[in-house]
Automatic annotation (TrEMBL):
Protein's name in the database: Iron-sulfur cluster assembly scaffold protein
GO MF term set: iron ion binding; iron-sulfur cluster binding
Gene3D superfamilies according to UniProt: 3.90.1010.10
Pfam families documented for this protein: NifU_N (PF01592)
Listed SUPFAM superfamilies: SufE/NifU (SSF82649)
InterPro entries: NIF_FeS_clus_asmbl_NifU_N
NIF system FeS cluster assembly NifU N-terminal domain: residues covered: 11-73
Length: 143
């Protein structure tokens, strides 16, 4: 269970369950990110259309923090463009570094990122799904 307590571990499982953890049948693009330091790997199965990316499902082998973050990212059910991803990640990073408010975020997001604020060594795990999603925009720019 690594560093997490039993209660935190249960929270991570609940956050993970906010996502769909199977290979989507309709996905057009698979965006993958990995952390070679710990072996985490996450794949986002997405539909890409008009410079927007929608996560349909996810899979991979990763720690509870990465899976929980993936579930929370999925639960927003957005059609992401690069601007909205940058804005969302910027809000989170500002909160983690200088106590900015999370007023517009749902309860699960607030609880997860509050816990991440107390565990800065796990930020890399928490942002791995964001790295995978960002790769979709890099592919769009090259096309």
């Amino acid at each position: 269970m690594s560093q997490e307590s039993n209660n935190q571990y249960q929270d991570f499982l609940n956050w993970k369950e906010l996502g769909i953890w199977e290979v989507a049948k309709q996905s057009h693009t698979i965006l993958t990110a990995s952390n070679p330091l710990c072996g985490d790997q996450i794949s986002l199965h997405c539909i890409v259309s008009n410079a927007k990316i929608e996560i349909e499902s996810m899979n991979g082998e990763s720690c509870s923090v990465c899976m929980a973050s993936s579930g929370i990212l999925f639960s927003r059910r957005e059609k992401w463009d690069l601007s909205s991803l940058n804005r969302y990640q910027g809000f989170i990073e500002n909160f983690l570094h200088d106590n900015r408010s999370f007023e517009s975020f749902n309860t699960e997001e607030i609880q997860f990122w509050m816990l991440m604020k107390q565990n800065p060594g796990r930020h890399r795990c928490a942002f791995l799904p964001f790295q995978a999603l960002r790769k979709g925009f890099l592919k769009e720019e090259k096309a």
